[in-house]
Amino acid sequence: MKLAINLLLSVLMLALCLWLVWPNAHGRAALSETLDHLDWAHFVPYLIGFYALIAVVHVCRSWRWNYLLAPLGVRIPFGRMLAVSSAGFAAILLLPARLGEFVRPALIRKKGEVSASAALGTVFVERVGDGVVVSLLVVGCFFALKTDASPGWMMPTAYLALAGFTTVMLFLAFALWRPRPTVHFALRMTLLPRFAPKAAAVIEEKVLELIRGFAVLHDHKNLAAFIAWSAVYWIANGFATWLLARGLGLPLSLTGAFATMGLVAVGISLPNSPGLVGQFQWLTMLGVSLDLGSGILDGKSPLYGRLLTYAIFIHGLQVVWYVGAGLAAIGTRHVSFADMWRARKLAPEPVPGDDPVA
Q1: What pTM, to 2 d.p., does this model score?
Q2: CA–CA gap between residue 170 and residue 187 (Å, rounded)
Q3: Residues 6 or more apart in contact with residue 333 via CB below 8 angstroms
Q4: Distance of CA 332 to CAs 28, 295, 325, 328, Å?
Q5: What is the spatial distance between Cα 204 and Cα 192, in angstroms, rounded to a whole number?
Q6: Overall average pLDDT of the 85-91 stretch
Q7: CB contact at 8 A, 204 and 183
């Protein structure tokens, strides 16, 4: 039932986003003209620079996870970490509703060392940390871009994202301080213990096991290292977003590029369409319109062809990168098809021998 609901949400998101982004006759003509007149000699150096920055993003995004795992007593060599992360990133991209987030924890589970549930807790911290950083980035960039002509959804979206991720961050803090009372209170707020007490008890124990992965929040040294690697990751990502736009002749400012990146990052935290098809393009186009004006979204705008080309390219180039890296990882000794098959479970059980949360 859980899988069916996730798949349904994914398909609905795909249909909605394709409907939103699908160009009309004028838009299709503008896209065709832009592609026909694309100066590849001018574009290729920008493409190389874009992929160089994406490589930096990939390495930083992979390696920083070690600093979340370190407080659990886990240290993974660079080669294995890169392979596991590459396979996991490909799964996040290809599976609906971000179900691929379970792959990385399942791939590193090891009896007596770390359970998949505890490792999943570190991924939860990673996602929340990214969410807070991106939300702050979105608020700052949106303020910088705000004009009288800005759309009404612009600032409320930024504040809502910031409020949501900040609330989850507060839960992390209280969960570390008083794990069981915090989880018990959160479950009571859902009314689940009243209507399904057995299910609530199971969920409570699972969440308490998950909280083991929050240990990095007590470890200032590893937390600082994680933040530093994350900063490089997001800065490189923003510059890659800006560089590709310039290569395609789209006059996107650096602030606009970071705003676009932030909006996409917040938007894809929702249930995602398969491969982020439609969703990524739509969010990219909305982000660019905050910098270049909402008129650019009109299929008759002189920049519309470049905008649509950019939205297609920035998504497609990253799909090629992450899927390619994932396939390459499966060809190494660190990750196999059998490993990926075992990691397919949506909620892996803790490994026997792990210490329970007090």
Answers
A1: 0.83
A2: 16
A3: none
A4: 42, 48, 11, 7
A5: 11
A6: 91
A7: yes
